[in-house]
Amino acid sequence: MSLFRPRPCGCRAILLALSLGLAALPGAGLAQDIVLKQPIACTLGETCYIQHYVDHGPGPELRDFGCGTASYQGHDGTDFALPTLAAMAAGVDVLAAAPGRVRAIRDGEPDGAFAAGASVANKECGNGVVIDHGGGWQTQYCHLKQGSVAVRPGTKIGAGTRLGQVGLSGKAEFPHLHLALRHDGVDVDPFQPDPAAACDPAPRRTLWQDPPAYVGGGLLQVALTDAPPDFAAVKAGLVPQDVLAADAAALVLWAYGFDSRKGDVVRLTITGPGGFAFAHDAELEKPQALFFRYAGKRAPTGGFVPGRYEATVTHRRDGAEISRKAVSVTLAAP
């Protein structure tokens, strides 16, 4: 029985073929809906976010269940992402979304192999777990951290059982959990289980116990610094300072976000003592899974006026604000 099968997933594909001979759970064949809990121990919109949804678009057209494009062609699951590599290193648990029996696991695949250029052929899901829930339902959890898988095949588990931790194994370009749901071998979107339904950010029927709100992009982090940071450092988990020197060469506001669309506008504004004011609009030229923009002002002659500087970043789409974050920093006299 092939449980881990090659298919599109959270970073372009799922995993291998792993054969186990465990019996199905009692009640197999029932047509009742499964009820899912959040499969990751984090707060959506604060310490984690949904990067990609299931692709409902026909052919090459992209469409997630909420009428947006937070997906990619053939994507068959939901990607619960962490904003930085530091968050992954700190450890975020992956949880069973529903009770069932563990059908298959894999562990030992290195984190970051795909990003480093290594082949992950036939192991695209990386470290993972498959759970049989009865009634033809299965969930699959991909890209777990190497060495973190905490369950064994054949074990009966409850909803919320710790399966492992979010990682970067397999064909993954950012730390995330790819959750795939299947019924009788057919992919199902838990946000909109009826594939014939029209897209709707608030569908009437979902398979979530507490349906997460639809979010088709937004801001992850903003900060004030004295120079533009390297994007790789931001994704790794750069921790900005609360205090900068007033004789800094510049004051820079940067924004890190996800799922941009062509035409989105990121507005960066800074105000401070002595009438300091700065504003800049950055129009995003193309869709990006992760985006980074910055703007700022060089120091005036004699340096910045010491004091508190406040900044706001907004992310707008089609004239409407979809995300906002604020930050402040103190510029202290040398």
TrEMBL record:
Domain M23ase beta-sheet core: 74-190
Signal peptide annotation: 1-31
Protein name per Swiss-Prot or TrEMBL: Peptidase family M23
Source organism of the structure: Rhodobacter capsulatus (Rhodopseudomonas capsulata)
GO molecular function terms noted in the UniProt entry: metalloendopeptidase activity
Keywords from the named record: Signal
Origin superkingdom: Bacteria
